[in-house]
Amino acid sequence: MKKNKKRKTVYFTFLFATNVVAFSFLSIKCNLNNKIDPKNPEKHDLEKNDPNKPKPEENSSNSVDGYKIDNSKTFKPNFAYKIKVSYVKDGDTFTDENSNNYRFLGIDTPETRTKDADGNWIETQGNQFKFGKLATNYTTNLTYTSIINKSEYDGIFPKEIYVVPQKTRNGKSEITDHYWRIVAIIYIKDIYSKFWCSNDLLVRKGYARMNYISLNSSSKYFTENIKYYKFIENAQNEAKKNKLGIWQDPSIYTEIYPK
């Protein structure tokens, strides 16, 4: 009987030791799969808990911030389409390589041109022109120049541009305004596959104001996209609070937006 007990004790001790070794091996293997940079050991934890890490839908290969990517050439509301910008007219308007013109939904950058009494186009003056050029340069760099040059701008390394057309009223089609411009939310995909909303950036940095968008169902600028409306509203509140760009001096606002 004593011999049997002894054998059992040895047997269970052997099993326990075997499991410990196996567990240790698995732990080592897992740690090897999650390598820690010896030069920056804190980087591992920072990346794991990074508050700025893109949301799951931003990392999805078939969606942009929750909008499904459509590879067809027929634009529909609330689908994302990859385009290439060929020309930036001003801060909130550009053209793609297929000659489609786009108007950024719900925002308004200062004008750089206006018509004189004879109907001829002339440059605007003073702060209106100044802030209009700032907005134009910002959009040009983010949606065109940096992509062509594969360079960084304002902390972003742009790689691709996506547009998400929105439903409109009183336009030439369900997604255009009366100038045949596709009214859209513009997204910039960077080299890290994170998406940035260009409309939001322009407003949040004080290069544009929130305009031509409403939650009033009787307005010609009515939008069903409440989430986006609140998003831009928050961006404008932040810009005002921090007195950025067009909000830095209340006395010049009417000069920047004379109408």
TrEMBL record:
InterPro entries: SNase_OB-fold_sf, Staphylococal_nuclease_OB-fold. Keywords: Signal. Residues 79-249 form the TNase-like domain. Residues 36-58 have a biased composition (Basic and acidic residues). SUPFAM superfamilies: Staphylococcal nuclease. Residues 36-69 are annotated as: Disordered. Residues 1-22 form the signal peptide. It holds the Pfam family SNase. This is Staphylococcal nuclease homologue. It comes from Metamycoplasma orale.
